[in-house]
Amino acid sequence: MATATDEVGDWVGRPLPSDGSRRGSDDAQATGFGDLLRRHRRDAGLSQEGLAELAGLSVDAIAALERGRRRAPRPHTLRLLGDALRLGAPDRAQLTAAARRDDNAAPRSAMRPAPAPANELVGRTDELIEVGRLVGERVTRLMTLSGPGGVGKTRLALAVAAEVAHQFDDGVCWVPLAPVSDPAAVAPAVAASTGLHPLDGARLIQEIAEQIGRRNLLLVLDNCEHVVADIATICSALLEYCPNLSILASSRELMRIAGESVYVVQPLALPETNDQLDTSPAVKLFIDRATARGHEPLEQREQVARVVRRLEGMPLAIELAAARTNVLTVEELAAELETSFGILAGGSSTAGPRQQSLYGAIEWSHDLLTPQERELFALLSVFVGGWNFNAAAAVLSGTVVPGPLERARALDLTSRLVDKSLIRVSRDRGIARYDMLAVIREFAADQLAAAGRTDEVARHHAAFYISLAEEAESHLRGANQADWLDRLDGELDNLRAAMTWSLRSGTAGEPVRLAGGLWLFCYLRGHYAEGSEWLERALTMAGSGGVEPQYQAKAALGAGMLAFLQCEYGVATARLESALTQYRELEDTAGTALVMQRLGGVARERGDYETAENLHCQSYDLFESLGDRSGMSWAHNHLGFVAWLRGDLEIGARRCKRARDSFRVLGDGEGLAWSLISLGTIAQYSGELTEAEDLLLESLALSQRLGYREGVAWSLNQLGIVERRRGFTDRAVHLLDESLAEHRDLGDRWRTASVLEELATVAQQRERTEYAAFLIGAADGIREVIGAPVPEVEKPDQLATRRSIEQTLDRRAFRAAWSAGRAAPLAAVADGYPGTGGAGAPDRSNRL
C-alpha cells in the first residue's frame, strides 16, 4: 500500500526509464484543487491511507489528485471525498470550483474511449459476469479473450469494459489494432489511444508507461493476433512499470507472457431440444438480426435451429446467415448451408474484409501461419468429428506409428494451432482431443485440395484407422471392453470417413480389413445395417482378388453375423459357410470354432435345436483344444441358451451359471450380460420372479453401461414379462414398448415378433382384444417372412393368448384385426390397431 511519502514521486521503488529520468513523477506541485484537498486532509488529521479508506478510493488515486496528475475528479468522487472529510456546504462548493478551474485550465490528454456497440449483446451473461469479475476485481492484470475469428471476442470486450469501467478511477482506454499492419506502428497506436503524442520514438514504451504512471486504468487492446509479438513486449513493460494498470486483450493467438490469463470465448449455446428454442442465444441472435433485415422468422424457430446448429453457434456466421434472409427463406438457407458455407458473405459495408465473410475471417488467421503450421492445418481437415494426438502425428508423418522426432514436431505444431484458435482442445478421462469448427475445417479442406494432397492424406488417414480398428478388435471381449467400445464410438465419424474413402478409392484389401476389424464393434453397439453394408461392399470388391485370405475370412464371418442379427438367415448361412471353408483352409482352429458358434445361432433361431446344440458342442471342443477359456465360456452360454429356448430350464441354468462365473473372472461384459439375461429368463419361466428381476436388472445396468443395445433390449423384454406375470400391466407395457423400440431399431425381427406376442398377451388381459389380435397378426407376419417359429419356451403363453382372443372375438372380427396386423408396416405396428381411425390410420384409442 502507498503512503504519504509516495508524494516524493511516482517511480520511487520502481524501475526507472532507461535514460534515468523521473519525468511524469513530480512535474510541478499541484495547485488549486490538489492543494485544497491536501489542506482539508491534514486539517482532518488523516493520512492518504486514512482518507482513501474512508472515501472508498485507492491510495494512489488520492496521491494523484493531490499532486495534480489527475485534475478532473468525477462528481461522484467529489461527493465521496466531501463525505469522508465531513466538509460543510461552503467547503464542498470551494472544492468543486477548484476542480472545475483546474480542469478548464489544464490541457487534456484524452484517452480513446471504447466505441458504443451498435447492437445488443446476446447470450453472453455468464461470460460477462466471469470476465468482469476477474478483470474488475484485479484477480488478473492481463486477461486475453481468445477464440477463432467471428466468435465475438471484440463484442464481449466492449461489454466487459462497460461493465467494469466504474471500478477504474481513471477510466477505460480503447486501442483498436486491426487497422495496424506495420509492427513499427503498434507502439504509436497504443500511445495515440492513451492521449500521448511523443516526440522521441526511441523511448516510446517508456513514454507510454510514464503517461499511465500509477493511474488506475483499464487498457483494452482489440485484435492483437497479427501483431502479437510486439503487443506482448509492450504489455510486459507496462505491467511492470504501471502498478495500477489492468489490460484486457482480444486475440486469436495468445501472448504467452508472464501473468497472462486466458478466457476462451466459446460459440453461443445451441438448443439441444425444441423446448429450448425460445431460450437459445444462438436462435435469438439469428431472429434479432433477421428482424433487423425486415424478416421476422418467429414461426420458423425449428428451421432457425437447424441453421444455427450447422453454424455451430458462431456469432459472425449467424449474423451473416441472417443477412441472407432478405433473399432466401430460412428453409432455403438451411438447405444451402448443408453443402457449403460459401453463401455467408456480404456483411456490413463498414466492416473490414474479415468481418464481411467467413472466408475472410479465417483467411486472416491463415495468413499469419508459418508454412509448417499451414501444412498441418490443411492436413487436419481430413478428420471428421475430431482427432487425438496420435492420429494427427500419423497423418502428418504419413506413417501409422511415427517416431519420436515426428511426434515432437506434431505436438509443437498442434500446440501452435491451438494457441492461434484454429483448433480446439477438450479433455476427457485423461485424453486430449482436438477438433475444428465446421467453417474452419471447410477452409482447411480447400487448402488441402489446392495443394493437390487430398487423396494422399485420406490414404494416411484410412491407414491409421484400419490399424486402430484391428487393435481394438482384440480388446472387445476382455476386461477393457467398455473403454475400447467408447474409444471406437468417439472415432465413429472418422471410421465412416475412412470406410467411404476405402470403398471409393482404396485397394480391395483396405475396406476388407477395416470392415472386418469393425464387425464386432458394429454388433455390440447396434450398427447392424451399416456394418452389413460395409462388409458386403468390401467383400464384393474382394471378389476380384488381391485380398489376403485371413482378412477375407474374417469379413465373411462378420457379414454372416450381422446378417443373422437382422434375421437374414439365408445370407447369413452363405457367408458363414464361406468363412468356415476359408478358416479350415487356413487351418485356423479359433476361426473355425467361432464360425460354428455363429452357425449354431442361426439354427437356434430357426428352431433347429438339435443342429444348434451339435454345432455349439463342436465349437466347445475346438476351443478346449486351444485352451481358450473365453471360447469355452461362450460355448457354455450358447448351449444354455439353446436349452432354455427349447424348455430345458434346469440344463440351461447349469450351463449358464458356469458361463456367468467364467465371464466374471475374464471380465467379459458382453458375456456376463448374456448369461445374466439367460438366468433371469430361466427364473422368470420357473416362477421365481424376484430372482428373475434381480438378475435382469443387473444385466440391464451392465448392458447400458457398455452401450450394448441387444443386451438392453433383451433385458427390457424379460423384465416386461416379469411385470405382466405380477399383474402390473402398466409397467409391463412401458418396458415392452421400450424393448420393442430397441429391437426394431436394431433390425432384430425374431425378437420383435416375440415382444409383439407378449404385448398381445398384455392387451388381452386389459380387454383390448382387437388390438391383441392385431399384434398377433403382426408377429405371425414377421415369423412367416423370416422363417423362424415361436420358441418352445414361449409357446404356452402365445397359444393361451391366441385361444383367449379367438374365444372373445367372432371369427370375422378376429380375421379382420389379424389381417390388419399382418399388413401393417413394422414401424407402425406399435402405434395402434387401425380400426375406427379410418383410412387405415392408427386408432390410438386402441393402444394399451
What does this structure look like?
- The protein has 848 residues and is mainly α.
- It is 62% helix and 5% strand.
- It contains 39 helices and eight strands.
- The chain has a five-stranded parallel sheet with strand order 2-3-4-1-5, sandwiched between helices. Strands 6-8-7 form a three-stranded antiparallel sheet.
- It is elongated.
- The model is unreliable at 1-31, 347-353 and 833-846 (pLDDT under 50).
Describe the secondary-structure layout.
Layout: H1 33-43, H2 48-55, H3 59-67, H4 75-85, H5 89-105, H6 125-136, E1 142-146, H7 153-164, E2 172-176, H8 186-193, H9 204-212, E3 217-222, H10 228-241, E4 245-251, E5 260-264, H11 281-292, H12 301-310, H13 315-323, H14 330-339, H15 353-356, H16 358-367, H17 371-379, E6 387-388, H18 389-397, H19 404-419, E7 424-428, E8 431-435, H20 438-450, H21 454-473, H22 481-490, H23 492-505, H24 509-524, H25 528-542, H26 549-565, H27 569-585, H28 589-605, H29 609-626, H30 629-645, H31 649-666, H32 669-685, H33 689-706, H34 709-726, H35 729-746, H36 749-765, H37 769-786, H38 795-808, H39 811-823
